[in-house]
Every structure is written in C-alpha cells, then in structure tokens.
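Worked example

This section walks through a single chain of length 111. The input is the sequence exactly as stored; nothing has been trimmed or padded.
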Amino acid sequence: QDQLGITETQAVGGTGALLQLAKNELGSSTMSALTSKASGLPGLSGGNSGLGDSLLSNISSMSGVQSAFSALGMDSAMIQQFVPIIMGFLGDQGVGSSLLGQLQSLWAPAG
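Given that input, the structure is written out below as tokens.
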C-alpha cells in the first residue's frame, strides 16, 4: 500500500483480484498450499476488498484482473507493480520456487 501510494481498499482489492485469478487457474489445492505458507493471504482473497464476492469470484483471466483494478480506480498498468511486491512477500513467507514460478507466469503481462 505505502510502496504504491494507493488506498488500503485498492491494495486489498488488487491483491485479491490477482489471488482469485491464481485460485481459478491453479486450483484450490494449489491455493491451499499457498495460503498455508503465507498466513496473511486468506483474508486478502476474500470479499472484504470492497468489490464484493461476485466481481472477484468471476476472475478467470488477466482481463478480469484489469476490470477489478478499473473498478478500484486503478490503471491496469498497476498490476505489474503489484506482482513483484506479492511475489516478494510470498518468497519471504517460504512459498516454494515452483509455486512462485507458476504464479509469475500466470501474472506475467500478456504480449
């Protein structure tokens, strides 16, 4: 939040959008492994982001993440500023490199 100069709602919502994409793409068992390592994550992928569950639960592609960022009043370019911060946090929490690699490729900019 402080690193990007955004509100807490934007930080939580943006992170939640990326995590929801990961959950939909990688499956809930992978996400369980992730959230068991990173204790702060379960709350971020929930509906307490101000966006509501319906918007977050439908995220199945980066375009859905972009829509969520737009709904939060952020430019889609912000997504690539969130990714290294989340990846750093997950690495610090002891998330394995294979799982980090899956997330990195999932969240990589299309193009």
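What to look for: Confidence is low (pLDDT under 50) at residues 46-50.
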